[in-house]
Structures are given as structure tokens and as C-alpha cells.
Amino acid sequence: MADKGLLIVLSGPSGAGKGTICKALLNRQKFWLSVSATTREPRKGEIPEQSYHYITKDQFKTKIKNDDFLEYAEVYGNFYGTPKSSAIEKIEKGENVILEIDIQGALKVKENYPEGIFIFILPPSMEELKKRIIGRGSETAESLVTRFKAAYKEVNYVSKYNYAVINDTVEEAVSKIESIIVAERCRVDRMKDKILDSKEGIIHERFYD
Ligand code: ADP
Ligand code: 5GP
């Protein structure tokens, strides 16, 4: 049977660089990026079914009723949810799955799937965060204020995560995440089947003389 894949959860305030980092990671190695459902309007340049599954509030409610989400949350006035079946299926098949989700969602996933790798993306400073989110040009004035206000609260949640990555340059941030993944793969509790013969910690016979 194939080794299970890793579940990598990336969160952080709006504008921290999660989307940019995910894209760069996907260009370098094979991950399966979960596509969320959302009730928010598509932004210019976003591609339906690739960026998000854009659905109505009623459709979202139906999905909640049908238990279709691994997690969902209301973020900055819109609903976002991670489709359940595909992410779990991919992990079981040995693929590394990335979720790019908000903090409420990440904490729900952590409760149900503590073996996930929870990474918080931080901006170099709040000033730089503001510059980057304004520079992205995606938000209305109202949405900018909502996102900035939320950011000051959100950064405090970094302590609930396993790792913090400061997004100074995209290249460095991506390289740190790749290092985290390599280290996680080498954790004894993930390698048990390869190096131990039993739960008592008896070493696998391949290491006998
Ligand atoms: P998020 O997905 O966390 O909301 P984005 O990935 O959309 O954030 O990044 C917000 C803006 O900041 C984008 O315009 C992006 O191009 C820019 N950006 C992201 N990372 C960096 C970086 N390391 N240096 C400079 N600009 C960045
Ligand atoms: P945006 O509107 O900028 O694309 O996303 C707003 C916030 O919602 C970001 O923090 C993003 O990570 C988060 N988000 C995107 N998809 C999901 C999801 O499926 N679940 C949760 N909980 N948050 C999500």
C-alpha cells in the first residue's frame, strides 16, 4: 500500500502571500491543491473551478446540510469551504494535499486531523502587508478595511500553528516550506512502518546484522 500523503495547511492574513506561495510551490513539485467553494464574487483574473467553485449562499447551505465540507467558515463576510471527499481520497492515495484556508478553518482541521502540517504565513511587517494588499488591487475600499482590521487579530493565532514562515521573498518562503515538508517526512512517527517492526519500538529486521 502507498504511504499516505501529507496534509499541508497554509493560513495567514489576507495579503500575506498564501496564493503566491502556493502557485510557486506547485511549479516546483507535485501537490494537489484543494479548490474551495465560496460565495464571494470572482476577482478579475480568477478562473472558475480552478481558483474557486463559485456558488450561491443557498447552494453553500445545501452542501453544509449534506456534510460535504471538511471544514467551512465565514471569512470577511463571505462563506468558504473545503470539499471533503477529494482531499481525503488524495491523501489516502499518497498525494500531498495543500489547503489554503483561513484560521478558523485551519483550527477545525487541526482538531480532526492533528497529523496535518499547519503553517502560518506572516508578512515581513504590517506596513508591508498593507502595501501588498493595496498593490494587488483586488479589493474595494470597504473590503480593504475589513481585511486590515482582521489582520491585526489574525497574526496572534500563529502560536496555534506548527510552523511560521515570514514571506520576505517568495523564493525564500517556498524554500522554507519545502524544507518543512522534507523534515516532516523524516519524523519517526511518520516512518514507523519503514523502520519499526512493532508498536513497542522494535527495529525492523532490515537493520539486523
Ligand atoms: P494572499 O493569498 O495571502 O491573500 P497574495 O498571494 O494574493 O496573498 O499576495 C498579496 C500581494 O502581494 C500580491 O499582489 C502578490 O503579488 C504580492 N506578494 C506576495 N508575496 C510577495 C513577496 N514576497 N514580495 C512582494 N510581493 C509579494
Ligand atoms: P480570498 O477572498 O482572499 O480569496 O480569501 C479570503 C480568505 O479565505 C483567505 O484567508 C483564504 O485562505 C480563506 N479561504 C479560502 N478558501 C477557504 C476554505 O475553503 N475554507 C476556509 N475556512 N477559508 C478559506
Low-pLDDT stretches = none
The overall pLDDT, averaged over residues, is 94
Strand line-up of the largest beta sheet: 2-7-1-8-9
**What is the CATH architecture annotation of the domain at 7-33 and 96-208?**
3-Layer(aba) Sandwich
The count of β-strands is 9
Overall geometry comes to globular
Please give the largest β-sheet.
5 strands, parallel
Instruction: Kindly identify the CATH topology of the domain at 7-33 and 96-208.
Output: Rossmann fold
Q: How many helical elements?
A: 8
Task: Provide a descriptive summary of the structure in words.
Strand 5 and strand 6 form a beta hairpin. With 209 residues, the chain is an alpha/beta fold. The protein has a 5-stranded parallel sheet. The chain starts with 6 loop residues before the first strand and ends in a 14-residue tail after the last helix. The protein is 42% helix and 18% strand. It is built from 8 helices and 9 strands. The site of guanosine-5'-monophosphate (5GP) has 17 residues, from strand 5, strand 6 and helix 4.
